[in-house]
Each structure stands twice: as structure tokens, then as C-alpha cells.
Amino acid sequence: MDIRQVDLNLLKVFDALLRKRHVTQAGASIGLSQPAMSYALSKLREMFGDPLFVRTGRGMEPTPRAQALGDPVARLLDLVQVEILPAPEFRPAESSRNFVLCMSDIGEMVFLPRLQSFLAKTAPHISIKTVALSMPDLEEGLASGDVDLAIGYFPGLNSESLKRKSLYRHEYVCIARDDHPQIGGTLSLDQYKEAAHVVVHADGREQDVLERAHERLKIRVNVRFSVPRFIGVPFIVAGSDMIAAVPQAVGRRFAEFVNVKLLPLPFPAPTYDFYLHWHPRFHHEPANRWIRDAMSDLIKGPMRLEPLANTKRMRMNTAS
């Protein structure tokens, strides 16, 4: 093949088709109509002398030739974008970019309100979409650019091909309703063991840290409710005599709108690190760099928490 026959725009179409496996979706991701994508695909087939993509019930499946071309084409496009073409300046105040963030319900509860306030002042036209993905889908989304950042605790996201930045360390506390009949201002280990618990099994992300601490210390808890997300925990605890161990930032958020108190755990509190994750492909992209810096400032800066004794006063001030 003569290099003069190679059209970089066609390679961009090829890369989008390989990622999306759907002509219309691939076109939408690079701003081309369905007819324009079909025409480009026909030119690609002619250029490479191969069907490249075959329509099946699961979408456009790549041929072996297309699979072999995938990584070289992606590297070539990255080289052109990062090292050859000058990066355009990102102007957040003027941008209408939609950022896709993968985070748990913890992140949504604690950090999205901060992000909303920040964007309202600095980037009013930017929109945010959050997603919850399995580890394989998340790694693929970060690599393709369909997901801009993963924010939180993702122990399964340990690929060496990803970049990450530690923001702060979560520490666990216990929450109980304010007028709990057996638990006052402190919590003993016997009370912790005897109380009925609400536990969260959130896709292997947060609660496994607590479970490992229980196993290490030979603490057996009385699990009454097991739920997949944190969002229902404060309402169950506030309306019952059950207790729950939760990350401190989440417990403080709960205490702002339901009748719960925060108590130190009666054993060394387990901790875990909270990270930003992104793909090296977008490390130098101005928009990705901007949202990384913004989330880092919003999450890392405000995490200097008051002593637990001040929680009730903090909730009363918030309510007023």
C-alpha cells in the first residue's frame, strides 16, 4: 500500500468503529453521520483489502485483520494528536463538554454537590454524567475515552497501563440513631458485636476493607440487612436500633439530613485510599487535565474533618 493512499480521517473512523462496534454510535463519537460512516467504511475496506467489520446480532464484529490493526492505529492517532498537532487551549467558562465520571454512590453523595457548586461558578455550560461499570468495562472505557475519570476506591482497577493519584484516606466510623436506647455517646466492642448491623456489599469496593478488619480481629457481627449501595443505609439506621460502619465522610453527609450520630469504632478503624484514575492516552489532553485538577482540588482540599464530637452541632448548623 502506498502511504499516499492513507487518509488519517479514515483511521479515525476505524478506531471509533473498533471501540463502539456500531456504525451510528461510532459516528456520533466523532461527529459523523451514519451515511458518512458507511462511506468511510467502504473506503477502509478498499484501502485494506479486507471487510474489517462484519455485521452480526451483537453489532459490527471486527475481523482478525481489524483486530491486528487496532493497537497500531490507536498508537498512530495518539502520536498525531499529542506530539504532532498542537493541543487546543481548554476554556472551561466557554466549554459545553460532557464529562463522564465513574464513581460509587459514596462519591455521588459526598463530592457531586461540591462539583456542582464549582461548575456553576466557573464552567456553567459543562455537563456531568456518572456511570457505574464493572472493572473490565471501566478499563475499556478509560482507554477509549468514553470515561474521563474513575474516582474512588477501585481495588480491581490495578492495571499498570493506567495512571492514578491518591487524594486522601477514608476512615470508618459507626452510625446509630441519636436516641438509640442502648448506645449513648460511646460504643463498646460488646455493643458493636451485639447490635444488629446494616452492611454494604458494594461490588467489592468498600465493604471488603471492613470485613478484612473484622476477620483479622476475630469480630463477628450480627448482620440484619445487607444492601448493595450506601444510599439506603442512613434511613434504615435512623428508623431502627440497627447500626452501620461507614466511611467517615459519608457518615457526616448522612448526619446532615437524618437523625444519626457518629461514633468512633471500638477497634482500630480500617482505612482505604481514595484515588483518581485516568488513561495515559489523555494525560496531556487539556480538558482531561482540567477536570483532574478540579476534582483533585475539590476532593483533597475540603477533607479536613472536624472531631466526631462536633457532628451533632454541625448538623444543627446545617439545618438552620
TrEMBL record:
InterPro entries: LysR-type_TF (IPR050389), LysR_HTH_N (IPR000847), LysR_subst-bd (IPR005119), WH-like_DNA-bd_sf (IPR036388), WH_DNA-bd_sf (IPR036390)
SUPFAM superfamilies given in the database record: Periplasmic binding protein-like II, Winged helix' DNA-binding domain
Ranges where the HTH lysR-type domain occurs: 6-63
UniProt keyword terms in alphabetical order: DNA-binding, Transcription, Transcription regulation
Coiled-coil intervals, chain numbering: none
GO molecular function: DNA binding; DNA-binding transcription factor activity
PANTHER family documented for this protein: HTH-TYPE TRANSCRIPTIONAL REGULATOR LEUO-RELATED, TRANSCRIPTIONAL REGULATORY PROTEIN
UniProt record similarity statement: Belongs to the LysR transcriptional regulatory family.
Protein name from the UniProt record: LysR family transcriptional regulator
Source species: Paraburkholderia monticola
